[in-house]
């Protein structure tokens, strides 16, 4: 029964991504390509590491956290105005995010891989978090809320409360909550 809930969460995440891509093609949202590239790579590595250490259904939300961004990244090339202009700080976060993934390759230990995938994904999230804080109109709180719900289903599939099973899930929920807050937070009214 639990696997069906996790699969339902994955389907919800796909619907969220579809709406985000539709809004992106219309020019309503503007993804930061460095964030979405690293959001593709880091979760997929985290999912592979978790799967290699025996995690089964609980890894699906982590996998979806990489697969959905892959779709967004590819779609961002369909509308030349539907992406955020990158700054040097974006490239710097992307570099350190990539460096964290390279450190995983040196160790090849599943737990270390998950830690470095979290660090990498977190560094990749920084440009979008900053953009969401200063330009919330360029992001979609609905997507992150749907992802939050979909990711949360992974907790129902955890068989053993060990870091490879819950580590990336906890991180994903935290970063999704931060981005949602940055987008929907109350703004001061200017007179």
Q: What do you see in this structure?
A:
By secondary structure, this protein is mainly α. The protein has one domain (2-184). Helices cover 73% and strands 0% of the residues. The chain contains seven helices and no strands. It has helices spanning 2-25, 33-52, 60-75, 88-107, 110-134, 141-152, 163-184. The longest helix is centred in the middle third of the chain and has 25 residues, at 110-134. The protein is globular and about 55 Å long. The chain starts with a helix and ends in a 7-residue tail after the last helix.
SSE blueprint and pairings:
Elements: H1 2-25, H2 33-52, H3 60-75, H4 88-107, H5 110-134, H6 141-152, H7 163-184
Helix pairs in contact: 1-3, 1-6, 2-3, 2-4, 2-5, 3-6, 4-5, 5-7, 6-7
How many strands, what sense, and barrel or not for the largest sheet?
Answer: none
- Annotation field: number of helices: 7
H/E element sequence: HHHHHHH
Gyration radius over CA: 16 Å
* Domain unit count: 1
Distance between the termini: 54 Å
Structural class of the secondary structure composition?
A: mainly alpha
Task: Provide the β-strand percentage band.
Answer: under 5%
Low-pLDDT ranges:
none
Average of per-residue pLDDT values? 83
The coarse silhouette is globular
Percent range of helical residues: over 70%
Number of β-strand runs:
0
Question: Concise description?
Answer:
The chain has 191 residues and is mostly helical. The protein is built from 7 helices and no strands.
